[in-house]
Known about the structure:
The protein is an alpha+beta fold and 276 residues long. Helices cover 26% and strands 29% of the residues. Helix 2 (52-63) packs across helix 6 (103-110). The radius of gyration is 20 Å and the shape is elongated.
Amino acid sequence: MSLASPLKAIKTAVFGKAKLMQILCYAALIFGAMGLSSAVNAVDEALPKEYIPLVQGLIDAAKANDPEAIAKRVAYPLKREYPIPAIQNTQEMIARFDQVFDPKLLEQIAHSKIEADWQTMGWRGIMLGSGVVWLDLDGKIIAINYQTPVEAKLKAELIAKQQTALHPSVSEFVSPALSWETAKFTIRVDDMGNSQYRYAAWAKGKSLSDKPDLVLNKGKLVFDGSGGNHSYQFRSGPYQYYCYVTVLGGSDSPLGELVVFKNDQEILTQAVIKAD
């Protein structure tokens, strides 16, 4: 059996327009978090007249520094860089407003020129600059590829909290990549720096403070096309462990899958039932 991703079939699925734009712009957020360009490869288009009032409304809200007005212009949940939790609703957005929108970002939006700084990117939506802010075609914010100092501090605090809760053998890493639960395992993948990743797994029911049942080092990150789907891949003798992450998927697609091969033969597949 080929080692090609068993999730590749999702590329042919039919998606709802708004949902598709939201997950594609979440892919842009992932790329930005990994130090890659947040711009989507597409031909820039001048902003059509029908979208100008939508963009102008956001610009006006930013000029007024109005958290409530901006919060009402967000499509929820609004993803943030892991392990920062997503923002689920208007009330939470208002409460966390200063985490996401600092004076620098508000100024960039407020002083943006509709003709020069905003453009439609086909069916993907409307973006500011090279993708710092994305709107869907209804004018709702679907991605913010910017991290304030407040949010950066929060991320560092959450990472430190994770490290404290982990078994000492796996408590050191640069940043967490994913934390999953499947039917039988608790899995986490951590970025160890220098483009290398570590896989750690515990049998379901064990605490992360216990020593992992399996640790694999020197894994790699592989992207599957431009939609954002990617996998973390590890080898151990004749075994290959693939953590497939679904960014672009159908409504019934799992959040991800753990697939294990032995000598190129698939021996285990488990869908992700929970992802932090």
